[in-house]
Amino acid sequence: MSDPQNPTPNGLSYKQAGVDIDAGNALVEAIKPAVRSTRRPGADGEIGGFGGLFDLRAAGFVDPVLVAANDGVGTKLKIAIDTGNHDTIGQDLVAMCVNDIIVQGAEPLFFLDYFATGKLDVAQGTAIVNGIAEGCRLAGCALVGGETAEMPGMYHGNDYDLAGFAVGAAERGTLLPSPLIAEGDTLVALASSGVHSNGYSLVRKIVELSELPWSEPAPFAPGQTLAEALLTPTRIYVKSLLSALKAGIGIKALAHITGGGFIDNIPRVLPDHLAAHVDLSAITPPAVFGWLSRTGGMDEREMLRTFNCGVGMLVAVSPLDADRLIAHLTDMGETAAIVGHLSPRTGEAVTFQGKLAL
């Protein structure tokens, strides 16, 4: 007599080993509308094939240089997993990749994701991919494919991991940083939406010290729980900065303020003979940074090397174009302000004056 739980009596099935192919197929069907919503010139295909296609000529490029970036979300994922809130973590994944691509002066064109879990939950996976699609829409890039890996034994409980891969392009000769970057150029800061997606191992340690449950009201964000406030998605700067670049405003360099904060990220786009001089009193950090600093007993330099402290992107621009750039970015919905300038390097690559209002 056959056993309905074991249709192959002389051997195991893949499902009995913990991998549900039907759930994977169901997820692909569930996310197709979100994927379709990210279509753009150059990318019109359906997901489900063996590879994603992109037509650079259809996207309007003549002599392009490709720019690629990949990243993850770090331990911010643990907050999403522990609280069951998966709606925005996909936007973080896209943001961390496409913000790195616009820093090169390139336009993000397409994105692929890697989602690995111990047991595939179709509702959870759909929420994650919907967030990825939202990030792609905000960046103007197409979600052309990805990989869902169900790996029992590798991940425990509801744990999962995400990785993202983005490819962009710029016309040859237009990549940043520009060789014209010079002493006296102005530094313009673009406001962050909060902690973004770096430093969360420390954030979670501080939350542990505070003894506040994730469901409690956030001390720094009225009307939100602690989890909701700390899951605020990373801001995507692509469309506003791409618009400024296409408008011919004199942008010389861009620095994405991620892991390593001001101290490690700004030097990555500066030539050896220039230093960035930053006026910390010109920066307005969101309230979350003051709470993290006070609760964790962190000094200002540690904050500046760990978090963005309210600046998600820093722009080096000709001083003659600074006001025009700020007006343009403001029209695009950004909050922008002059926070410093470039000077000859005689010591450290980044120097500070004033204090953060934490």
Structural features, described:
This protein has 358 residues and is of the alpha+beta class. The protein contains eleven helices and ten strands. The protein has helices at residues 21-36, 76-83, 89-103, 122-139, 200-210, 226-230, 238-246, 261-265, 287-296, 300-306, 322-331, and strands spanning 64-72, 107-117, 142-150, 160-171, 186-191, 251-256, 274-279, 311-317, 336-344, 350-353. Strands 6-8-5-9-7-10 form a six-stranded mixed β-sheet. A four-stranded mixed β-sheet has the order 1-4-2-3, covered by helices on one side. Helix 4 (122-139) links the parallel strand 2 (107-117) and strand 3. The longest helix has 18 residues, at 122-139. It is globular, with a radius of gyration of 22 Å. 43% of the residues are buried.
- Label the structural class: alpha+beta
Shape: globular
Percent helix, as a range, is 25-40%
Helix segment count? Answer: 11
What string gives the helices and strands in order? HEHHEHEEEHHHEHEHHEHEE
Mean of pLDDT: 92
Taken as a percent bin, the fraction of beta residues is 15-25%
Distance between the termini: 72 Å
Largest sheet: 6 strands, mixed
Annotation, overall tally of beta strands:
10
Uncertain residue ranges:
none
